[in-house]
Amino acid sequence: MPGFEALPEGVQLAGAVIGVLTTVVVLTVYFTQLKLQGSKQLKESSAVIEQQQSTIAALEASTQALGQSVALLRAGREEAASVLMDIERLMTEGRHMVLATADSVLIPDPYAGDALIFLAVHGSAAQKIKHLRVPVSESAAGRVLSSGSPAVSSPQSTGPRFKQTDEKAGFRTESILSVPLSSAGRVRGVLQYLNRSDGVAFSEGDADTVGPICTEIAFRIERLTKDPAALKLLGIAERAVASDGTFLFLDLTRSTSLFDVLAPADVMSLLNEYYDRTVSRALREGAVLDRVMGDGMLLRFNVPTRVPKHAVVAVQCAHALQHEFAQLRNEWLRVDKPVESLSQRIGISTGTVIAGQLGHPQFLSYSVIGMPVNEAARLCEEARAVASGIAISEATHEAAAGELANLFQFVPLQGGQSGYAVEARG
Question: Among residues 215, 224, 181, which one has the least CA distance to residue 80?
Fold first, then answer.
């Protein structure tokens, strides 16, 4: 479906970085021309200036391409939502025709062949069940998906699965109408109606009544499922998986004190410059930005993009980030910004986390949860008492210390806390 292409992770950040680089190159050109104006070297340096101008043009083209990609993403989300709204409208028409009190459309989980997921669900229990995955082999919907034939059933005839779902939802199912959604010779999903409002059980005639509507719904499901990116735009994403990696928590200390001496807009400007410089350097060092939290952030290594020796890379990245912050802080001090009290601390941990899409369906993002993330946050706090501002876990030390012994000293943390302070040699 047009517009459903998924964008690479960090496209907005990439756009911001390109914008900054463009500004830098423009200023470079300006000052080069100013310095050389009236000089004999101007003619000799014209080739350099032309090359810089060419770089500006290339950066502007990249920025325009990123803008077009963002527009495509927005258009894709709107188109996917429009198709889903059309499906829900058709479901509602059918619900009125057969006097059902609740309904749902289930489709095969695109990331796990043994389960069905809810594409749309209506009724008093909709919010409680919409995230469930329904086993194909243990459900009325699964049997209809496999047979391709409609079925009328009751909870007693479908096994314990419906009872468990009812208990979770606080709902009482009396009668179930399950109809296959077929297009182009393939069953795309199952439409289920529950409980007629007149108290009468569904009949095979009800399946015939909603037959034309099922054909229309199947056609729209076919459109959606041609490209998995369309489903992602609707909040249907891969199952979470266990992943090994290294995780870096970073925090800017005492930044809130800036609001006591600067206007809010000036503080936000400093913070945005800090994010720009820090994240750009982290990306160059091999990190992936997981999330920004106030004046801190979480970076990940080896999840999902593979990074050989990720613990080693993370420790080196931490050192580079401290160097970058020191430079930025000195630049601020030279222009009389009141940042004397600011410092940056970093905590790093290595281990296995659960990685996957988290959040509201309209605001899903790929993220990680698990003990290594929590430990990195703890070590970030411990780094307050470390001269370098960097503290790492036992696991990170085990994975990285041997290779980095010539560059860093690893000193056990004080106070009985597990972990190590990282200090540069020399």
Answer: 224
